[in-house]
Each structure stands twice: as structure tokens, then as C-alpha cells.
């Protein structure tokens, strides 16, 4: 039969670490290596053969001024990242990467904002961004290269995880019960420490608020005289010619007297 399930997590006891190894490790490495191969190949081709492909007179590495070659290189790279973000919405072999695309409006705003900013940088960035304007054909090529990430993503999703060599999978040893208990203990200790610090900060905050509230009540009742008020009254009496003045304060019950010594 199937192995027993743990009560705390509801996951099969044998599947916690093993699932991480089989799926997360294999899928993660596949999703890293796959787009890297595509992007690195495209960038190298444009870098060394872009002048021939796009019929350009000057390469980016031969000029200190913004060139069309360098702008195409930069523009293609950014659009590959934009479309790869869409691919990254589904990272466990799902085919339809656009499913629920408009459910997360923040993601849609980020994609549209990135696209608009990239268009402005390329067309109007100039010397500040080492860019120069592109014509419509060059723009279409850059967008097509970026959209190629969607096609390449389907290819990567087709590749089985078993092609990832076992030697590339880190952390293949399962956690022991002692290691799990130690990690749980460290986590709880850190959590309690944070909670204690929060309680201390709240205590200081409440004490300061209570002191401020009491001083405000005393000031309203006329029973509180600050140290600066006392010093000011003393200086006034000293400058009155050695007499024995009496300085009246707002409170009818408090008087400040000073005599010559």
C-alpha cells in the first residue's frame, strides 16, 4: 500500500524531500538552463553577426557613440526577459502560460510598464542610455526574438526532467529527524526573540505615551511648571536691581521667590 502520511503536514512521509528533489530541483534547473541557452545563443549571434544580419555599417564594439547594433542587442535582451516573465508564470510543465493572465492586475501593469519604458528608452534615451532609434523592421525583429521565448518555453516544457544529470542536483540526501527538529527549534527560538523585541518596543511606546498624556493633563490644570520657566523667572528677578521680587505663575497656588544672598 501507500506509505503513511504525517499528521502535521498531510504529506506522505517519503515524499517531502524526495518531491523537492524530483520536481523542484529537476524543474528548476530545466527552467534555468533552457532560457539561458536560448538567450545566450541569440545574444552571441547578434553580437558577432548582427551587422551582417541587419545590414549595418558599424558594430557596437567599434564605436564609442550609440549604434543601431548596440541598440538591437539591448532591445532584444530586454524583450526576451519580458516574454520570459510570461513563461515563468507556469513553471511545472504547464502549456498554457496565459491562463489567468488578467487575474493578477499587478503583473499586467508591470509587463505593460516595462514595455512602455523600453520603447521610450530606445527611441528617446539617446546618449544617456547608449541607444538610438530603430526603424519598424528592426523593432519587429526584436519583438519576434523576444516572443520566441514563448515558443522555446514550449520546447523546454517538453523536455523530461530525467535528462538533468543526477550530479547536478544538489542536496540529494534527505533530512534526518534530528536535523528537522533542530531546524524547527531554531525557527521557534528566532520567532520568540522577535516577539520579545516587539513586546519591549511596545512597552516603551506605551510608557512614553502615558507620560505625555499625564504631562498634558497637568499642563491643562496649571499645575506643571517646566524647568525652563523657572530659570527664566530667576533671571528676570536678578536683573531687577537686587530687590526681592515675586514672580507670579499662571497657577494661583505656585509662587517663585528669590532673595539676595
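Q: What amino acid sequence fits the structure above?
A:
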Amino acid at each position: 500500500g501507500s506509505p503513511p502520511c504525517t499528521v502535521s503536514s498531510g504529506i506522505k512521509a517519503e515524499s517531502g524531500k524526495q518531491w523537492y528533489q524530483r520536481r523542484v530541483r529537476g524543474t528548476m534547473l530545466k527552467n534555468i538552463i533552457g532560457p539561458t541557452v536560448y538567450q545566450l545563443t541569440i545574444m552571441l549571434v547578434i553580437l558577432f553577426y548582427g551587422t551582417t544580419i541587419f545590414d549595418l555599417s558599424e558594430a557596437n564594439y567599434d564605436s564609442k557613440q550609440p549604434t543601431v547594433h548596440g541598440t538591437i542587442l539591448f532591445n532584444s535582451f530586454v524583450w526576451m526577459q519580458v516574454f520570459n516573465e510570461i513563461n515563468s508564470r507556469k513553471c511545472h510543465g504547464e502549456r498554457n502560460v496565459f491562463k489567468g493572465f488578467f487575474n493578477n492586475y499587478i503583473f499586467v501593469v508591470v509587463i505593460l510598464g516595462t514595455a512602455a519604458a523600453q520603447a521610450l528608452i530606445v527611441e528617446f534615451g539617446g546618449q544617456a542610455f547608449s541607444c538610438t532609434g530603430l526603424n519598424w523592421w528592426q523593432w519587429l525583429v526584436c519583438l519576434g526574438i523576444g516572443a520566441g521565448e514563448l515558443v522555446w518555453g514550449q520546447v523546454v516544457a517538453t523536455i523530461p526532467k530525467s535528462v538533468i544529470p543526477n550530479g547536478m542536483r544538489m542536496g540529494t540526501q534527505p533530512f534526518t529527524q534530528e536535523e528537522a527538529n533542530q531546524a524547527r527549534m531554531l525557527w521557534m527560538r528566532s520567532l520568540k526573540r522577535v516577539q520579545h523585541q516587539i513586546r519591549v518596543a511596545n512597552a516603551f511606546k506605551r510608557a512614553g505615551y502615558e507620560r505625555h498624556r499625564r504631562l498634558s493633563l497637568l499642563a491643562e490644570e496649571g499645575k506643571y511648571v517646566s524647568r525652563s520657566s523657572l530659570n527664566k523667572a530667576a533671571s528676570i528677578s536678578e536683573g531687577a536691581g537686587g530687590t526681592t521680587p515675586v514672580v507670579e505663575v499662571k497657577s494661583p497656588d505656585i509662587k517663585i521667590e528669590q532673595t539676595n544672598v
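Q: And what stands out in the fold?
A: Confidence is low (pLDDT under 50) at residues 1-15, 244-261.
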